[in-house]
Amino acid sequence: MKFTSLKHMLKDGKALFAKGPIALIFAEDDIELDTTLRHHQQLGFKEVFLFAPDVYALPQDLSETIHRVTMDMPTGADMMDAVNKISKAAPKVWFYYCFNAEYLFFPFCESRTIGEMLAFHTEERRDAMLTYVIDLYSGDLGDTPNAVSLDNAQLDKSGYYALARNDAENHNHPKERQLDFFGGLRWRYEEHVPAERRKIDRISIFRAREDVTLRPDFTFSDEEYNTYSCPWHNNLTAAVCSFRTAKALKRNPGSTFDIHDFSWYNSVPFDWHSRQLLDLGLMEPGQWF
Fold first, then answer.
1. Residue 73 confidence (pLDDT)
2. Per-residue pLDDT, 167
């Protein structure tokens, strides 16, 4: 279906939210837009929504199988607003959100669907899932100046770390089962990244509630949503493999001339398989085998 605005979608498209999980994809530009949509369709999402300007063309098969919402150059703030309004309109439905050129991977996603994974996660009494945004980048910026290459994608195999997430409302004591995670390009080129944008953790998968809102730092107003595990054992986590930071660093005039090659001695080719991410410790299967 085609909606002329978010307001139009919330008014006439509520029936599409009857059953999840549902993917919400926001197009900051048209780079790898079609592969992003196809990847998430193949994961088994019941519905896929694209928020993008009308000028971005799609192949006919995608135009017929996704729901398109006109949104002029959605920003992070636009995404937050849309996610929160949709969440209020469809309580108890599982949602996932991302930008174009970002690809969700979860344990064993090659043989299991997103619905199967979230059915298990729900049985563990979890209403949200921590995801790590793993930076991807082209191994040859001379060949792909925008830093995006599916065929020559690389990622950092190490250099990730976590710090306690302090609670300003509780004398800065660490929050229970919450950490701030860092690494990838945002860590290596931190001088070009504002401090508030250096974290790589994102609560990308959640079950909607009318009284819970997404905040600008990709956490939710209900602190339990922001935890990496329940109190009694480790839970599933997932990875959002993303070219977004690499694109931004090469697009920004303040950083592009300082970066001639993203590759370093800890770069490895990305295999586009969940096993590699599990082996590198970049997501957690929990009790799901």
1. 77
2. 86
Structure tokens of 217? 């730092």
Per-residue pLDDT tens digits for 57-103: 999 999 899 999 999 877 778 899 999 999 999 999 999 999 999 99
* Amino acid at residue number 59: P
In angstroms, the CA 71 to CA 8 distance is 11
